[in-house]
């Protein structure tokens, strides 16, 4: 709306409407060059005629005041004939010049206003051009933005279609994987059924063995049993021996013996699953065969700070924080072997053990530890 008003104002102030008001431009035209001499000649003739008319008027007035011809001849001539007319003419000329100056001032003021108007018109034209350029830029930006939005919408649409297709493919893959997993679950359930039957059979075997061989079941899983062997047939009191039985898919077992505080050497036994009972009996018999020695060592655990190494048959006695004694047990101890003192180390240095001997002739481990713990020089 503002642009339309500006354009209308510029049309109204177009210089073509002002050309008829400027005398300079009129003189520059061919018509002005022709009319100027003509008007000047007309003005000169009018002045000459005006003077003649003034003389005629004076003569008529003079003749009108005479009564006879003699009076015309005898009366002297007036000193300034046509003086009144000349005064009137000068007054008119002065008024004319004043009006001319006034008109020239108005023309000058109008010209200044015209120039100011032309300057404002140029400013408006510049602003209109800038506004038009801005308008075109805005239209171009809108067009680019619309095109960019259109491309973005297309890209989003393509991405959405790709995402939908990818999701559909994922769903199809999940369905296929679900079918495979379902088949695998069915197979595993069938295998679990077989393992359950095997476990039930083993549980029955364990229960029977427990009743006959004094076993205690600690834990059971799909492939592992944890047991404690209770050596009730031993002549001395022994701690339970902890073992684990791991079953493989090829109908084999892996039997692991844990030392704990029982003092038996840790070992592993492998074999067919049907031989597991015989393996347990063999381990228990070996444990009972060393029952006298292991019973003594188990009792010493509750009285002294000792560490038993069954593989080396070495007993380490920690008397104090700085005194460590090493004793070795011979094969067949205590009935056919002896317990001997190997070394005593105090503050990192070995002591002389030549004179260290309990008062008995063949001391056992208990007598050695009681003697060493009460001996003041170590």
Automatic annotation (TrEMBL):
Organism of derivation: Cyprinus carpio
Top-level taxon in the UniProt lineage: Eukaryota
PANTHER family according to UniProt: ZW10 INTERACTOR, ZW10 INTERACTOR ZWINT
InterPro entries: Zwint-1
One Pfam entry name: Zwint
UniProt entry tagged with the keyword Iron-sulfur: no
Entry coiled-coil feature ranges: 121-155
Protein name: Si:dkey-225f5.4
Keyword entries, A-Z: Coiled coil
GO cellular component terms, semicolon-separated: kinetochore
């Amino acid at each position: 709306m503002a642009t339309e008003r500006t354009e209308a104002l510029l049309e109204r102030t177009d210089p073509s409407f002002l050309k008829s008001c400027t005398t300079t431009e009129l003189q520059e035209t061919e018509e002005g060059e022709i009319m100027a001499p003509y008007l000047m000649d007309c003005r000169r003739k009018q002045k000459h005629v005006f003077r003649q008319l003034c003389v005629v008027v004076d003569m008529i007035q003079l003749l009108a005041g005479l009564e006879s011809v003699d009076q015309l001849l005898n009366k002297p001539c007036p000193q300034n004939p046509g003086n009144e007319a000349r005064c009137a003419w000068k007054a008119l000329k002065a008024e004319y010049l004043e009006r001319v100056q006034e008109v020239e001032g108005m023309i000058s003021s109008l010209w200044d206003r015209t120039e100011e108007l032309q300057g404002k018109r140029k400013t408006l034209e510049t602003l209109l051009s800038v506004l038009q350029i801005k308008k075109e830029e805005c239209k171009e930006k809108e067009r680019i933005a619309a095109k960019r939005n259109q491309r973005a919408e297309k890209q989003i649409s393509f991405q959405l279609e790709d995402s939908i297709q990818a999701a559909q493919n994922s769903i199809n893959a999940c369905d296929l994987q679900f079918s495979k997993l379902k088949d695998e679950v069915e197979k595993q359930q069938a295998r679990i059924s077989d393992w359950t039957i095997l476990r039930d059979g083993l549980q029955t075997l364990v229960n029977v063995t427990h009743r006959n061989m004094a076993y205690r079941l600690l834990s059971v899983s799909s492939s592992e049993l944890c047991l404690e062997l209770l050596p009730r047939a031993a002549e001395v009191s022994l701690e339970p021996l902890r073992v684990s039985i791991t079953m493989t898919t090829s109908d084999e077992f892996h039997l692991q013996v844990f030392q704990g505080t029982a003092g038996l050497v840790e070992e592993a036994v492998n074999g067919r699953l049907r031989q597991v009972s015989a393996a347990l009996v063999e381990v228990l018999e070996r444990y009972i065969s060393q029952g006298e020695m292991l019973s003594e060592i188990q009792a010493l655990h509750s009285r002294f700070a000792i560490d038993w190494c069954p593989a080396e048959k070495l007993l380490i006695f920690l008397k104090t924080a700085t005194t460590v004694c090493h004793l070795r047990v011979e094969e067949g101890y205590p009935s056919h072997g002896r317990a001997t003192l190997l070394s005593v180390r105090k503050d990192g240095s070995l002591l002389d053990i030549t004179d260290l001997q309990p008062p008995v002739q063949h001391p056992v481990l208990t007598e050695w530890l009681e003697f060493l713990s009460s001996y003041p020089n170590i």
